Amino acid sequence: MGDATVANATIRPEEAAHFGALAKDWWDPQGSSAMLHRLNPVRLAYIRDAIDRHWPQDGESLRPLAGRSALDIGCGAGLLCEPLARLGAEVTGVDAAPANVEAAALHAEGAGLDIRYMAGEVGLLDIGQFDLVTSMEVIEHVADKPAFAADLAARLAPGGLMVLSTPNRTLASRLLLVDGAEAVGMIPRGTHRWSDFITPEELGELLAGAGLAMGEPTGIGFSPLKGLHLSRDLSLNYIVTARHA
User: Fold this and answer.
1) Rg, Å, the chain Cα set
2) How many Å apart are CA 33 and CA 42, to the nearest integer?
3) In a domain, 8, yes or no
């Protein structure tokens, strides 16, 4: 379920090449990124709830991020950037693969959305800080995880909100995400290295080392009846918020 690529100092070059090769199919809900299309609404529901709790508003606002900036790190072809823009944010998407950034910019233009996309290593880009920082299914692809956590923290403005998701390193995730989903083609083969998956405890320690406090994780589970859904079960995948400590 890799959304992403983050470049040079933190990402492995072969990871960037792997996800860049998927760029042409990224927006096809039946293509190689079909699983991401199923996952995206689940993540968005969590993000919207986190936004409403972090920045309480009166009533159900259609644009709760109006007047705020958002950064999606490892944005792929923009599956999350576009909904964030529709929620009112001034959005920047960063990805290591230039092909992904090109596909993202083209799709945003066709949708009439003004989103800034940039290719490169987020820690090396002069882009400032953001009220909302998201990074979905990225940190498991990163070689230097403490450096990446520091880059995340550096991009989060004071009082801002961060949302991260990543697979857990469990027997269930190995059997279902790697040995199962990749083997049958639900996820492109070679997307995951199970040994790079991170437990919630490990992620909390990484974020704490970067000066961030992680919230209680929520699982993203799967069942034949519900499909992908938010859950108390953390064994496959989980999503968390973080803030400056």
Assistant:
1) 16
2) 15
3) no
Question: Which amino acid, one-letter code, is at 178?
Answer: V
Backbone dihedral angles phi then psi of residue 174, each to the nearest 5 degrees:
-65, -45
* Runs of H (alpha helix) within the chain: 13-20, 34-54, 81-86, 98-111, 145-155, 171-173, 200-209
Q: Which domain holds residue 192?
A: 13-55+64-244
Whether 2 is in a domain gets the answer: no
Residue 115 lies in a domain: yes
- pLDDT tens, residue by residue, 131-149: 999 999 999 988 899 999 9
Q: How does DSSP classify residue 176?
A: I
Please provide the DSSP assignment of 112-155 as one string.
Answer: T---EEEES-GGGS----EEEEEEES-GGGBS-HHHHHHHHHHH
Tell me which residue of 203, 218, 225 sits closest to 49, measured CA to CA: 218
pLDDT tens digits, 74-126: 999 899 999 999 999 999 999 988 999 999 999 999 999 999 999 998 999 99
Q: Residue 232 gets which letter from DSSP?
A: S
Give the phi and the psi of residue 158 in degrees, each rounded to 5: -55, 135
User: Is the Cβ–Cβ distance between 101 and 118 less than 8 Å?
Assistant: yes
Q: How far is CA 116 from the centre of its chain?
A: 17
Q: What is the CATH number of the domain that holds 49?
A: 3.40.50.150
Quote the number of domains for the chain: 1
How do residues 184-240 score in pLDDT, each as one tens digit?
555 666 566 788 899 999 999 999 999 999 999 999 998 888 889 999 999 999 999
Task: Note whether residue 146 is domain-resident.
Answer: yes
pTM, to two decimals: 0.86
